[in-house]
Amino acid sequence: MNYILTTLENLMQQTAFFSLTWGNYLMILVACVFLYLAIKKEYEPLLLVPISFGMLLVNMYPPIMQEGGLLHYFYLLDEWSIMPSLIFLGVGAMTDFGPLIANPSSFLLGAAAQFGIFSAYLIAILLGFNDMAAAAISIIGGADGPTSIFLAGKLGQTEYMGPIAVAAYSYMSLVPIIQPPIMKLLTTEKERKIKMEQLRPVTKLEKILFPVVVTIVVVMILPSTAPLVGMLMLGNLFRESGVVKQLTETASNALMYIVVILLGTSVGATTSAEAFLKVTTLKIVLLGLVAFAVGTAAGVLFGKLMCKLSGGKINPLIGSAGVSAVPMAARVSQKVGAEADPTNFLLMHAMGPNVAGVIGTAVAAGVFMAIFGVH
User: Fold this and answer.
1) Cα-Cα-Cα-Cα dihedral of 274, 147, 71, 9, to 10°?
2) Residue 82: which of 285, 255, 238 has the closest Cα?
3) Angstrom distance (rounded) from CA 375 to CA 95
4) What is the pTM for the complete model shown?
5) Considering only CA atoms, which of 117, 174, 109, 169 is closest in space to residue 292?
6) Mean predicted confidence (pLDDT) in 347-363
7) Relative to the CA of 309, which of 120, 278, 285, 286 has its CA 20 to 30 Å away?
């Protein structure tokens, strides 16, 4: 009888109930909320489902993220910048740069949205972060998870990589909630109803030359952007060349989704209660929100300026798509414009600033790396 009782007691002691803290239970609750948003509300489920499940696992079984644990090895691929670069390869293979080529002024809107990054950098320094940590945190403003992970790793800010990655991916997922109030606050109903002229057709030659030219120009100026910009443009060249359909399909489907699973679960697994429930983490999350909000606002305000200069031909809403959450931000521009006028179709116009924002955020990361002499 004693043997049975001892065995049962040992089994009970091995359950998670005896080792979890209140913080673990709080993070489990947060994970469940994220799963609800992903599954019920469909807020970017491809990102939120693996992230929130990784969050769930690590707070019930912390060793899964320690050396020897499954997700620890997934996470090493994040630190080594392998996952972010492969994500960019997939994004390039999935993305049509035609709207950006047809309307090069979209580059300006994509650049304006990066203002959130540099404003957050200054605020982070004022809050006591060192310059490299501030740079790694500020890139959240681009709403670009892979670039955030890439820069944090390159700048040696691995202690902040978890909160930075979770904040970046969370804001990417919550674009449909965060952006519309800012867009409506800064525009009039008349501006939101502006219909833009149809984009000109883009030739196949232009689409093939674009990734090659952009790679040469950007990497020659900022060589440190080669892993991100190079993979983004390689993926796009796969797509537009038309001669490597198998590579295009692999990069944009099988490879992309495998990487999303590995990256998402490993990012979510950085949110153990011990590592995540800190004042520093709260500062990072709030700074990311400020950066993202300022970037959205800067894009819309620059869109208003371009609207004035063009004699009312540009809808300011497309400026909000300058953050690099592709294609979520462009969809939000379309949604808000359609709310003002159901016959207004802004999606393709918004894709120009959206893909410009991807390039812009990678360039911003390259600028920080150049400033700090990191390769």
Assistant:
1) 20
2) 255
3) 27
4) 0.89
5) 117
6) 92
7) 120
